[in-house]
Amino acid sequence: MIINHPLLGPRDAAEFTYLGDAALIHRPDWEAPDAVQQFTDYGYLRDNRAGPMRELWFHEQGDRSWLVVTRDTTTHVITSVELASDVARREGRSR
Amino acid sequence: MTQKNRLFGGCVDRAQPMSFRFDGRTYQGYAGDTLASALLANGVRLMGRSCKYHRPRGPLTAGSAEPNAIVELREGARKEPNTRATTAELFEGLVAKSQNRWPSLAFDAMAVNDRLSSFFAAGFYYKTFMWPAAFWEKVYEPIIRKAAGLGSLATDADPDCYDKGFLHCDLLVIGSGPAGLMAALTAARAGAEVIVADEDFMLGGRLNAEVLSIADQGAADWAAATVGALAAMPNVRLMSRTTVIGAFDHGIYGAVERVSDHLAQPAAGKPRQILWRIYSRQSILAAGATERPIAFEENDRPGIMLASALRDYANRWAVTPSQRLAVFTNNDDGHRTAADLYAKGVKIAAVVDVRPDAPTHPDYEVLKGAHVIGTMGRLGLTFVEVRLADGSNRTLECGALGVSGGWNPNVHLASHQRGRPIWAEDIAAFVPGDALPQGMHAAGAAAGVLSTHGALTSGVAAAAKALDALGLNAPNLTVPEAEDAPVNVTPFWHVAGAKRAWLDQQNDVTAKDVKLAHQENFRSVEHLKRYTTLGMATDQGKTSNMGGLAIMAELAGKPIPEVGTTIFRPPYTPTAIGAFAGRSRDEDFRPVRKTPSHTWAEEQGAVFVEVGMWLRAQWFPRPGETTWRQSVDREVLQTRKSVGICDVTTLGKIDVQGADAATFLNKIYCNPFAKVPVGKVRYGLMLREDGIAMDDGTAARFAEDHFVVTTTTANAVSVYRHMEFVRQCLFPDLDVQLISTTEAWAQYSVAGPNARKLLQKVIDAEHDISNEAFPYMACGDISIGGVRGRLFRISFSGELAYEIAVPTRYGDALIRRLVAAGEEFGAVVYGTEALGVMRIEKGHAAGNELNGTTTALNLGMGRMVNKKKDSIGSTLSEREGLNTEDALKLVGFKPVDTSHSVPAGAHLMTKGAPVDAAHDQGYVTSACFSPNLGHAIAIGYLKRGDARLGEVIRLVSPLTGVDHDVEVVSAHFIDPEGERLRV
Amino acid sequence: MSDPLPQMIPLTALGGREARTDTHGPVTLTEVTNTAIASFAARRGAEAPAAKALSAVTALQLPGPGASARGGAFTVFWIGPDQWMVMAPHDTHELLAHDLTAAAPGQASVTEQNDAWCRFDLRGEGLIAVFERLCPINLRAAAPGHATRTSIDHLGCFVLMETQSQITVLGPRSSAGSLHHALLTAMRSAH
Prior knowledge:
heterotrimer, B: alpha+beta, seven-stranded mixed sheet, six-stranded mixed sheet, 50 strands, C: six-stranded antiparallel sheet, 5 helices
């Protein structure tokens, strides 16, 4: 596979390490009253869809950026690649 | 008599004769020959035996689809079984042996299988070897393995090396026939970076095998001229001997280049083959088509070939398998073979055409509406029996029969991404469908366009599409004049009534087997394939699958496209495992990481151990020591008595800087870091988000905004990745920056009561490292002989200990300096074994304890998990299931009978209770002999362990026969109060 | 003051006293020891002043992703968002990290990398054919100054292409021997 790195352009997927569902960005609030339940869902109930899926990939043999890659798991068609830090900020991980 | 079947003309170089041996006999051929063409030239048709029935076989094809003529090529360590004689290039001194026969090719004892063939029909294995189960391994399998299978492997290691590489192009053209060459020329003229790959050693595809003209030139001459024009262009890379074996995601192709297979052995330093990963933006599949046979009774005798193969041999190699031949066809192309060979002076016994309206020829007989119904000749064809249109029979005398059932486009690569081929009625064959791999276009015969003119035109058209996608303008190219014969084919798959009509000649699958499978209800093509083994041999059914599914369709009363094809998978042709391994074999399997003291340790005769990619000294034998235990015991005792030195460079080191560095470490570690003073080190325990311990290490604070973090050797990479995840994905606005410095510093542990005295000799005097100035857990910058360094007062051994670091280039000098300075104290250098013994004596957890199932509570560090802050894993470590009353706790064990050992992995059982999983109380994680205590010791996890000190418990390991009593003790066997650390 | 203990004599990454040079066909492979290296990462919120400071101290325009800049004593190449690696001769710039920290106080996280890397320079014609056997980077199409991290025989390496006949590889120092072997093997395979 080729992952079109937002900064470095197309790179072989072999340079990357895969983590999984990008929902891992949404780490729950540890002070929530049901924090244990939320963290359990966060840790164990991740999606693994047949179809378009937002995934985390780490450019380990590259610039060490974590990326959010939107990939159809049935065809490997990649429709979007973003820096995970940008996604995290946009989706509320800023302090 | 030499080369009695060599004709005139062709593309062989008669000025370069080459001698070779086959089954012990010496023959002669020419440069440009394949092994098969050279054998045929010498009148040898019989080249092998089939897999199951050991039927005598000769080549069916002249290329990579060959099912029959497979041999053991070369000798000794380079021997390669199952090599297709039809693609093996001849070289001087080539040695080949037929396979699958004993004692000789002409007389094969296993041919008795052929007489018993009625027992060996489809499903024979499944039906016969079902019962009793135990018989499979002991009786059936050894017999089958001996009798079946193909060639035999070399037993020595492959002496050749293989390479891997990466190529990039705008356009990859797969195949160099008329379509491929025209496509390449079009794209190259437009300025695209083009790679042309062809499995053949001679570019040009079928143009080298046909008597045709293109633009008033002979086809082969036009191909050579076009190849020459392409070779002269800097943006074109021509790769002959290169098979594109697979189409992968996003325009990536795998291709094997046979760099040295045409040589007796590779030149020095050169690989035998290179596996290229080709990154293409666009690709054109111009892989041509493969002729398919017609099934008829006894259609497998040596001399019976595809009609196109006869043409290949005659036109390209100037060879015929016999001076008298016949053709059996259902289409016009078969007649071309007869005409070409006739023109070469070969006698044509007749052309047998199933079509009543077949074309005629003035110079030889065409039997219209006729079928071949049988053949004769024990080791090679002698006669063909024909049923004429009027129902009468006729016998033709001939040594070769060309069979043509039409052409199948080579759609394989078009289907590697699961796109299904579609049925083209006009040529009665499957062609690539719409769902092609990304960026691929099909052209020429591979796209079902079978005329030369059509191929040239479609090559230009496919290139234009690719150029459009690349944003380049297609040049104005005139398509040269060439024949444009229509395809006249009447689908005809097998002669009715034939019993032993071979479909898959390599796996001995007949038309009857397909009928049997259907009768037994194996109706999906995938089931048919697996039940009959049709298409499962090394040729993957390139010449047989179509016939099998046509018969299947007929039996099911369905049209062929409704039956469909099996899935196409890479590789396109058999590929040496060595090519996939590339350079990664033997000592080059993976890189080696060496510590800065490696050279010194080698000089000392150290025994090394692999720790991940690192090579670490395991122990340092001294003269007179005969067992590893003697060395390790000495190293441990002397360290605790005086001082020992150990290379600990392999620990991961990560530089953590930024205004929020402490905040960040508070997230990473479950224990607090905010208040660690500058100049101090703190132990940290890192949890996974699920509350399980991930790694441990230390963080040394060199400034308010600067920590140096260590990880275990094994987890250096994964911890760094995790830290970047937390930094970028969870807390993107923290001001913290990370970078690994593992390699930058050589680091040694100096441990033992005399550690400080030793270091005071080594470290430059201006640095005060007295207990007062540099207490336990201090860190700071120092210098050694003027070289910048760092000092950490941390201990893994439980002794007064330091870790001293210098830039890696000085690592060798520092170990020599430390050893020299330690002489007066009797300092030892110790390896990983002694390190392990000392940490077990101290009850320090390591990888065996942080084994991916244990929590801080299990490790006895439950109170370290700070509840007042948020850290990774802190929330889920509070889960009920991880905090049960009978949770495992890390404790020590010593044998009641001190002569006993305590093996790691053994399980713990309450005395008197049954020994089973339901009563399991825990397990031993790490064990060793403690030279300080004089007996075996161990640490491990025991339910409620911390409340059971003093209890005698049963240690069992049914696997190793261990069953004895151990006492539960504190894991801190030595200096439990930790007083030695602080002196 | 006399020091009776063995002197602190540095070794090269390949373990010798002297740097090693190998020539095969048109390509020369040289171990380079005289290189000081420091990583430079801008602090959050100080990206602009940090970059300005680095640019000032090196007198170079800072390169973007996949690129390098060189001039005077310095080579700077991009290694990640707001992060660069800086190289200069070790003889004159051993304390490069210290100097860079001082040049951008509180604006950048600077880490000494002098001995984290082994450096090999390849010079000569036909280098592209050598690197085709080593890494998936398209150097044939790359512009001069191309600089990127990739994987060579499982080792994370920086490949800096000054021109198509001058390429530098930085690899993990502990694997210098394996990397050197890989480079030499590729040279022999290609030429």
